[in-house]
Design a protein that fits this description.
Strand content: 15-25%
Radius of gyration: 15 Å
Strand order of the largest sheet: 3-4-2-1-5-6
Number of strands: 6
Number of helices: 3
Largest sheet: 6 strands, mixed
Distance between the termini: 37 Å
Shape: globular
Structural class: alpha/beta
Length: 119
């Protein structure tokens, strides 16, 4: 998979990073990308958080790890900067993360994880 960006820096983006690393341990997250730094730290888990702006490596793919309501705005901004490889977190991937990966991740840590449907 190589070097990538993930648009978003909160829980979904961090879960997506963990999932992509699980799928390919060689993946290298260069940075979380955001359109507004006012509600974001400068790093998350040691990974820098950067504004979507000129000067980024637009040849790297960008995975969008945010709620789908934010996708059109982020895709527009990413295209304006020159990104062509944009992969949104789809409903299918969101379900796969929730149902397959996250529960396995928590079990691996010896923690309990229950889906809302399981309660």
């Amino acid at each position: 998979m190589g070097k990538i960006y993930i648009a978003g820096a909160h829980s979904r983006a961090q879960t997506l990073k963990a999932y992509l690393t699980y799928l390919d341990p060689e993946v290298e997250l260069v940075s979380y990308l955001v359109d507004d730094m006012s509600e974001n730290d400068s790093t998350v888990g040691g990974i820098p958080v950067n504004l979507i702006q000129n000067g980024l490596h637009t040849e790297y793919p960008v995975y969008i790890g945010t709620r789908s309501v934010n996708h059109p705005k982020l895709i527009k901004k990413l295209r304006e900067v020159g990104f062509m490889k944009i992969i949104p977190l789809t409903v299918d991937l969101d379900i796969r993360l929730r149902n397959e990966y996250v529960s396995r991740f928590y079990r691996g840590q010896g923690r309990c994880f229950k889906l809302i449907d399981d309660l």
